[in-house]
Design a protein that fits this description.
This protein is α/β, with parallel strands linked by helices. The chain has 17 helices and 13 strands.
Length: 392
């Protein structure tokens, strides 16, 4: 298994806090990372029914047997155990006593924040960033192969066929995780909804449309999207409209955490299909946005990503508001740099309030080609160099 970018940050947190909580989607590598970073900790998986039953029925006895330092895997399965961990930590608050992992995003974090506030550091492990993918032997080197293969470590660590792996992942998600999170009577309808959601990548979230196309209400469509967010399958990129004129769009855009999963849901089974696919540009945009997000999250930084769009057609695909300056990026899947790539970036200072523009704007074009350039005072970044840039 490769070294993960989050590793040093996770180790640092373990030296400072009595509890470290690591969340992220299933199969993102949480267990492997924790065991690599904390080799001296005991490891206990709460997925095993007998171990989970022990923790639920006799939490004091469980913690007495599995004394810290200890890694408790999939702790969202036993939420009441966190209150007993709180007592143990308050009694002796030594750094690194408990390392907790979990895959249910909002549900786990809500429970952790209630029981372990001030006692735990929280980190997030996403599927691999491109900086991590290239550490695997025989990692893909071509853009469309990279997008279709996705970023889950098992695919590369075990040299698996991406489509076969994603089919199993989708089935597991539907039959196991979704049923734990919400009462979905018709899993077939939910899978249809999941496939339609993949078709909305890079678009403004439209619950009425998703509901109508699936045959459910808009409220149900909204609730189901929350389930996908909770399971770390999708996220919504917020609009940047602070102090902007009223014509700015204020609806978030929809993205998947992993383009390989999106490709599988869209029926894209070969990289070559992406060359002429109608969602090629949207999938490339999704890939870049998530790469930037992972670059920040895996260094323990807040996700400060936004997009900007107004009702007259002005749009910037990705804005990073990082205090001292704004990093503005246009994302183009084409392999040839065209003049219109730069138009909105050059217009951006005029669209922002003076107080925002005066902070300084670092403009970038990320495209599907291979040559790095500097044109019209704007950096032109090839897709395979996104991993090499500071996004902070």
């Amino acid at each position: 298994m490769i070294a993960r970018t989050l590793g040093p940050k996770l180790e640092s947190l373990g030296r400072q806090f009595p509890v470290v909580t690591l969340t992220g989607p299933r199969q993102s590598g949480k267990t492997t990372l924790c065991r690599m970073v904390f080799p001296g900790h005991r490891y206990v998986s709460l997925e095993a029914p007998d171990i989970r039953r022990y923790a639920v029925e006799d939490p004091r006895g469980f913690l007495e047997q599995y004394q810290p330092p200890v890694i408790l895997d999939e702790v969202q399965r036993t939420p009441d155990l966190l209150s007993y961990i709180q007592v143990a930590v308050d009694r002796k608050p030594l750094p690194g006593k408990f390392v907790l992992t979990g895959s249910a995003n909002f549900a786990l974090l809500e429970t952790v924040s209630q029981s372990l506030a001030g006692r735990t550091a929280i980190a997030h492990l996403m599927p691999c960033g491109h900086d991590e993918i290239v550490r695997f032997k025989n990692s893909p080197t071509e853009l469309f192969e990279t997008m279709q293969a996705g970023t889950y470590p098992a695919i590369f660590d075990r040299d698996l066929d991406p489509l076969d792996w994603y089919r199993g992942y989708i089935t597991t998600t539907l039959e196991r995780d979704i049923r734990q999170l919400v009462n979905v009577a018709d899993l077939g309808a939910f899978q249809t909804y999941l496939e339609l959601t993949a078709g909305q990548i890079g678009q403004l979230t439209n619950f009425s449309r998703l509901g109508a196309d699936t045959g459910i209400t808009a409220n149900t469509a909204k609730a189901w999207l929350s389930v996908l967010e909770t399971g770390f399958l999708v996220f919504r990129l917020r609009p940047f409209h602070s102090n902007l004129r009223s014509r700015a769009v204020k609806t978030p855009k929809l993205y998947f955490y992993d383009t390989g999963l999106a490709c599988a849901l869209l029926g894209i089974s070969e990289p070559a299909q992406l060359r002429t696919h109608p969602l090629r540009g949207a999938l490339f945009e999704n890939w870049v946005v998530t790469e930037v997000m992972k670059a920040r999250v895996h260094r323990g930084l807040q996700d400060r990503g936004f997009f900007l769009r107004d009702r007259k057609g002005f749009e910037i695909d990705l804005l990073l508001d990082i205090g001292a300056r704004i990093i503005a990026s246009e994302i183009k899947s084409g392999q040839t740099v065209a003049g219109d790539f730069f138009a909105h970036l050059e217009q951006l200072p005029k669209e922002l309030p003076r107080s925002q523009a005066e902070r300084g704007i670092e403009a970038r074009v990320v495209y599907g080609g291979s040559d790095r350039q500097r044109r019209r005072e704007i950096d032109v970044i090839p897709w395979n160099q996104v991993k090499d840039l500071p996004w902070w």
